[in-house]
Design a protein that fits this description.
The protein is an alpha/beta fold. The protein contains 7 helices and 12 strands.
Length: 261
């Protein structure tokens, strides 16, 4: 019966990594960590936890995560970020899928996994609560897959997994603790919009300056009113506002770098 490798990429994640490792330990046959030269205790924590740790200079999320997948000893991999955790329901689903309820129990060699990959629902933990609206309440991402059938896309940001074959969906969720506070959220917005703009430049994409002026109000209306971010209270407002800022800055930065010699 197939075993499961959990793969994680890290960089200065000492505040998050232990919570993540503890959540995947019940389902992982091995944990592979690829670190892009952290300056904190991230790799020390991982080694103490028994992870296989590799080092690689960061050159894009897709490439870094695919490198982590390539280091796994199992074909079945679960890719999770350091600021994410598996819910207890998801842990139980994965245990049943790989046919054991504890590490001491024998797997059933006659059973087979019916799909080559699985989408997993996501929940964002933001400002002390789980957001249920604003475009993040129903997110799913393909994170559990057989690497024989799939691999990560080679893009700078918002990478994904492309697979050939049937894809299922699980019920349990991954909880994403993406932002410590508003300042941390702004730091990520600045980083991710720069990476996204560079990706747009490389693909030849361009925008009009008029679209910059229209992007913020249209995005905020979408997140806060159409996607009902207002139902998440004050955290929903802040999320919708900063999500609109993110959408606008991607466009503005793309225009800026396209104008440079």
């Amino acid at each position: 019966m197939p075993k499961l490798s959990v793969v994680i990429i890290t960089h200065n994640e000492e505040q998050n990594i232990l919570r993540c490792l503890e959540s995947v330990q019940p389902v992982a046959d091995e944990i592979v960590v690829v670190d892009s030269i952290s300056a904190d205790r991230t790799t020390q924590i991982c080694r103490e936890f028994g992870c296989k740790v590799f080092f690689r200079e960061f050159d894009g999320y897709g490439l870094q995560k695919q490198f982590a997948v390539d280091q796994a000893s199992s074909d079945w991999v679960l890719s999770i970020d350091a600021d994410e955790v598996l819910s207890e329901e998801l842990q139980q689903e994965i245990k049943l899928m790989f046919h054991y309820t504890s590490k001491s129990e024998i797997r059933n060699p006659k059973s087979e996994i019916p799909h080559c990959a699985f989408h997993i629902p996501f929940s964002l933990h933001y400002m002390g609560r789980i957001l249920k609206h604003g475009g993040v309440g129903n997110e799913v991402h393909l994170r559990l897959f057989n690497r024989i059938n799939g691999r990560f896309t080679n893009v700078p940001v918002h990478e994904g997994v492309e697979v050939q074959g049937p894809v299922g969906i699980l019920k349990g969720r991954i909880i994403h603790y993406s932002y410590r506070d508003i300042s941390h959220h702004l730091e990520k917005i600045n980083l991710y919009t720069s990476q996204a703009a560079e990706g747009y430049r490389k693909s030849g994409k361009s925008f009009s300056k008029l679209w910059v002026a229209l992007k913020f109000p249209s995005s905020f209306i979408s997140f806060y009113f159409i996607k009902l971010g207002l139902l998440d209270g004050y955290p929903g407002f802040i999320w919708s506002f900063l999500a609109a800022v993110y959408s606008t800055l991607k466009v503005a930065k793309t225009i800026e770098i396209n104008q440079k010699p």
